[in-house]
Every structure is written in C-alpha cells, then in structure tokens.
Request: fold
Amino acid sequence: MQGRLFGAIEFNNNPNDRVYTPVDIARYIIKLFDPKGMILDPCRGGGSFYDNLPSPKDWCEIDEGKDFYDYTSKVDWIISNPPYSHFDEWLDHSFALSDNVVYLVPIAKVWKSWGTMMVIKKYGGIKKVLFIPASRCGFPFGFPCGAVHLVRVIRVRWKLYMRQNSVLKEEKEECDRK
Ligand SMILES: C[S@@+](CC[C@H](N)C(=O)[O-])C[C@H]1O[C@@H](n2cnc3c(N)ncnc32)[C@H](O)[C@@H]1O
Reply:
C-alpha cells in the first residue's frame, strides 16, 4: 500500500501504525467510556473496537479503501486505537467530526509536543484517562499506554498552563526577585 499524502506530508507504512488492540481491552475501554449515539471507529483494523460498539455505528479502514481523512459526517463519538505516526493530523480531523474522542495510544503521544497540546487545548480538554501497561495491550513496544477521552466541552475548566520560553524567563526572574 502506498503512503498517504496529507497536505505536504506523506504518511508511510510505519509498522507501529498497525498494532491491534486485544478484544478484552477494547471491550473494557468501551464499557468504561460508554459511548452513545452515532459512533465511529475511524480505523477498524481487525475490528476489536468496532465489533463491540453499540449501534448505530460506522467505520473506516484504509486497508479496505475507506480513508478516515475522506470521512466528513459528524458523529457523537469516535473511539479506537489510531495510527500513531500522524497523530496530530489524525486528532485535528477527529476533532472536526466529533465532540467526544477516545483514543488508546502510547500515553506520551498526548503530551509529546507543544503542537499536540495546542490542538487539544483549542478543542477542549482531557476528561478521563485510563492508564494501561503496554505489555497488557500486547503492543510490540514498551511505552505505557492509555485510553484518553478528549472532549470539546468541559464542565470544569481544564487548567493547562502553557508558557513560551520568553514568558518562562520573565516569570522565573520575577520569582527570583521575591
Ligand atoms: C494502531 S492500528 C489499530 C487498529 C484497530 N483500531 C485496533 O484497535 O485494533 C491503526 C489502524 O489504522 C489504519 N489506518 C491508518 N491510516 C488510516 C486512514 N487514513 N484511514 C483509515 N484507517 C487508517 C491502519 O490500517 C490500522 O489498521
């Protein structure tokens, strides 16, 4: 399969993009987050999430010719284990389609960069995290994993303080003066 072109970026066939969730873990995540209404699994793979979701539901899977980036219908929930190598673009598209997004990922992906945090902060925030050891997920890497529920509307204000270097420097100088 060819890498996919997204804007100027080409997504290659990163093997870590094709790790499949054990069915019991997918079921546990679905039970815990309890999605309702129209639910999309944007990258069905072998179906461990999709097959266990309540209806109504829909799916995409690039290997079966249904590219998530071409999906434009709004849905109530998105839930899955996404490809990791284009996580920011994947989040952007997910946020355009749904107010509730749950992804099982190596947990550091969520905090990995200023850009990712800005995308999440602009959307809303993090409502709930289920932390799972990677070994329990059967994934071929050692990073701890987590299912993260991202929401557009958060009832309690999410406090995430983001500081550019210049501001940090000013704040540090102010602390030093006190
Ligand atoms: C980490 S695997 C997880 C598969 C499945 N969700 C699971 O939990 O077992 C990510 C999946 O995303 C699919 N994928 C990658 N890019 C995609 C795209 N643009 N649209 C739809 N599916 C895509 C891959 O083929 C792969 O099956």
